[in-house]
Amino acid sequence: MDDRQILLDALHFHGHKCWASTMGVRIGLAAMRALGVERSGAKALHAIVEIGEHHGAMCFGDGVQFATGCTFGKGNIEKDPKGKLGLTLIDKASGRAVRVHYKPTLQPRVKASAFMQKRTAGVPPTKIPESEQWELVDLVWNAPEGDVLVVEAVESRAWHEPEEVVRFAVCEECGELVAEPYLRVVNGQVRCRDCAGYPA
Ligand SMILES: [Zn+2]
Ligand SMILES: [Zn+2]
Fold first, then answer.
1. 183 alpha carbon, closest ligand
2. Å from CA of 167 to ligand 2 middle
3. Is 132 left (phi over 0), alpha (psi -120 to 50) or beta?
4. 190 CA distance to ligand 2 middle (Å)
5. Is pLDDT above 80 for 69?
6. CA distances from 120 to 23, 115, 130, 134 (A)
């Protein structure tokens, strides 16, 4: 798949077109190239993203997830919340990692774009004309790599895989399937947290 197609698919997954998700794709791809690795179909890679909570540009995380295959569902992505567009990608097998971060050279143009002016005024991204969405996506996508990101040195980084509990049981109260580490015992019955009747 070529990079533009990866971008198009990522934006489809993300739900709208924006500069931060686009940069997530670019930075994810740059990190994979620096390590010489493929997208993580299983859990060969682990990502640490530096976005936090409740701030702009968190869309970065979706671009990273789509490009690298490090996803919430596979559990091979985590946040180290610093409010930054930074990614550390770890190749578990070779014990190497690289950090790639956004370089804000174009930030004045991003901020001045019709898209961001409307976002700042509270317009939801999906209500902004398609042409203005593309204008901003293409600004960061077509820029020379050195203008928008920095690939730091590849470093060694040991990885210790946490044990994955694969066992499940059915809650005897609600009948839902529950992963074993989350089961509680109440009067000799196994129950989920919702049905246990006491705090987690
Ligand atoms: Zn977005
Ligand atoms: Zn239950």
1. 2
2. 16
3. alpha
4. 9
5. yes
6. 19, 9, 17, 17
Rounded CA-CA distance 103/79 in Å is 20
pLDDT at res. 198: 77
Q: What string of DSSP letters covers 43-63?
A: SSEEEEE---SSSTTTTHHHH
Residue with tokens 């109260």: 173
- In angstroms, the CA 191 to CA 172 distance is 6
Q: Buried b vs exposed e over 91-121: b needs ≥16 C-beta within 10 Å?
A: bbeeebbbbbbbbeebeeebeebebbebbee
Q: Answer whether 0.70 is exceeded by the pTM.
A: yes
Calculate how far, in angstroms, residue 57's C-alpha sits from the geometric centre of ligand 1: 7
Give kind and range of the element (H or E) at residue 148. helix 145-148
Helices 19-35 and 60-68 meet at what angle, rounded to 10? 40
